[in-house]
Automatic annotation (TrEMBL):
Residues the entry annotates as binding substrate: D11, S12, Y43, G44, N75, T76, T187, H188
BP GO annotations: cell wall organization; peptidoglycan biosynthetic process; regulation of cell shape
InterPro entries with a match to the protein in the record: Asp/Glu/hydantoin_racemase, Asp/Glu_race, Glu_race
Keyword Cell inner membrane set for record: no
Statement: the UniProt record of this protein carries the keyword Cell wall biogenesis/degradation: yes
Name of the featured protein: Glutamate racemase
Provenance organism: Fodinibius sediminis
NCBIfam families, per database record: glut_race
Keywords: Cell shape, Cell wall biogenesis/degradation, Isomerase, Peptidoglycan synthesis
Summary of the function given for this chain in its UniProt record: Provides the (R)-glutamate required for cell wall biosynthesis.
UniProt superkingdom: Bacteria
One Pfam assignment: Asp_Glu_race
Family to which the UniProt record says this protein belongs: Belongs to the aspartate/glutamate racemases family.
């Protein structure tokens, strides 16, 4: 496989760009292709069959672009279609945010009680619960759906009084739970990391960012396969609808300009 081949990253919309940001930080020489399925977002309200179909279409697109690795930056897809994507990808390694976040949480020396926050769909799927219990069936898990955080993130309201009040309200569920770590189970949530840290600062609770975790896993896997790119760093961005609005939000998420967002039909 070609070392200079790109890493393919995809999500149902814009949230996966927090994963892109961490991958670019951990692997600055890697070429990246990102696809956001903005025409069909959100995935969380759709059936697993439909989500799998969408995910396989995106996988096929990325494979046509000759990617050397695929990162599933969508919790809904990670929960419902990872095995099918891996089968379709063949020899191309596939990593997902749920596995990455779980592995990071379980690597922490103290992991008797893990908290998870996510969208209604992700929490309802209990995907993190299953992944954590594959490591250790005795771990206590407390989950909380935080649906308001996604629209706040897309409005850019991540560090104002409204955001702080809503984060406080959601995290109050963990006040007496004595959790050891808190998994941010949605790719929008790292945008609230500073606000969440301020809310939890009195307690020794580790925040697990699945974007950081999957970037670390990607670096380790590419190194193991001797596929690290010595010189690169390009970024291509594709969406299925509304590239102008996406570009505005994407630049907010990444903290940098994106020269061109291309629209394609799958």
């Amino acid at each position: 496989m070609n070392k200079e081949a790109p890493i393919g990253i995809f999500d149902s919309g814009i949230g996966g760009l927090t994963v892109v940001k961490e991958v670019r930080r951990a692997l600055p020489n890697e070429n990246i292709i990102y696809f956001g399925d903005t025409a069909r977002v959100p995935y969380g309200i759709k059936s697993e069959k439909v989500v799998r179909n969408y995910a396989l279409q995106i996988t096929n697109f990325l494979m046509q672009r000759n990617v050397k690795m695929i990162l599933i930056a969508c919790n809904t897809v990670s929960a419902s279609a990872r095995d099918e994507i891996q089968e379709a990808a063949g020899d191309i390694p596939v990593l997902d945010v749920i596995s990455a976040g779980t592995k990071a949480a379980m690597a922490w020396p103290e992991h008797d009680h893990i908290g998870v926050i996510g969208t209604l769909a992700t929490i309802g799927s209990e995907a993190y619960n299953r992944a954590i219990r594959e490591y250790n069936g005795g771990v206590k898990i407390t989950s909380k759906a935080c649906p308001m955080l996604v629209p706040l993130a897309e409005e850019g309201w991540t560090d104002n009084d409204i955001a702080r009040q809503i984060v406080h309200r959601y995290l109050a569920s963990f006040e007496d739970q004595n959790i050891d770590s808190l998994i941010l189970g949605c790719t929008h949530y790292p945008l609230f990391k500073e606000t969440i840290q301020q809310e939890l600062y009195r307690r020794k609770i580790r925040i697990v960012d699945s974007g950081e975790s999957i970037a670390k896993m990607a670096r380790e896997e590419l190194a193991r396969r001797q596929l690290l790119n010595p010189s690169g760093g390009t970024f291509e961005c594709y969406v299925s609808d509304r590239p102008q609005r996406f570009q505005e939000l994407a630049e907010r998420f990444l903290g940098t300009e994106i020269p061109n967002v291309q629209i394609i039909q799958l």
